[in-house]
């Protein structure tokens, strides 16, 4: 059974190329995401490339790794987190006056049991953590918007 789709979106007054340049530079992810402290890409940005990441929530810090699953310049970037099987994506859509960005977390096969156990034990339970993740997505997109519109 899949986990719920978590999603947030924002309209940015900047062209897709500008937004893509920010999103696709993964070492900048800590500037956008309130939970990401580091994201290191190994090799060029391409499907199959690996990253090592460090996340933080209050006093809890944990490493993850991911595999890039989609790279469509100015359209879509996605990666799958190895530890829990979730896929995170950023989809860009040209709109009048700029770009709509949709950030999603999909878990069509559910979140791995070990991840749910840890979230329940250390992060107040899955439902409240999922609310926190959507809040983080909105934060991420607001920061991206500010940076892209500053140019």
Write up this protein:
The chain has 151 residues and is an alpha+beta fold. The protein has a single domain (6-150), classed as START domain (Alpha-D-Glucose-1,6-Bisphosphate, Chain A, domain 4, 2-Layer Sandwich). The protein is 31% helix and 39% strand. The protein contains four helices and seven strands; from the N terminus they run βααββββββαα. The protein has helices at 16-23, 29-32, 113-122, 126-150; strands spanning 6-12, 36-42, 50-57, 60-72, 76-81, 87-95, 98-106. β3 and β4 form a beta hairpin. The mean pLDDT is 89.
Instruction: Count up the domains.
Output: 1
Oligomerization status of the protein chains: single chain
Indicate the structural class. alpha+beta
Number of helices: 4
Shape annotation:
globular
In helices, the fraction of residues equals 25-40%
Give me the CATH fold name. Answer: Alpha-D-Glucose-1,6-Bisphosphate, Chain A, domain 4
The CATH superfamily is identified as: START domain
InterPro entries: Polyketide_cyclase/dehydratase, START-like_dom_sf
Protein name: Polyketide cyclase
Pfam family, one: Polyketide_cyc2
Features:
7-stranded antiparallel sheet, Alpha-D-Glucose-1,6-Bisphosphate, Chain A, domain 4, alpha+beta, 151 residues, single chain
Write the layout of secondary structure elements.
Elements: E1 6-12, H1 16-23, H2 29-32, E2 36-42, E3 50-57, E4 60-72, E5 76-81, E6 87-95, E7 98-106, H3 113-122, H4 126-150
Antiparallel strand pairs: 1-7, 2-3, 3-4, 4-5, 5-6, 6-7
Pfam family, one: Polyketide_cyc2
Protein name: Polyketide cyclase
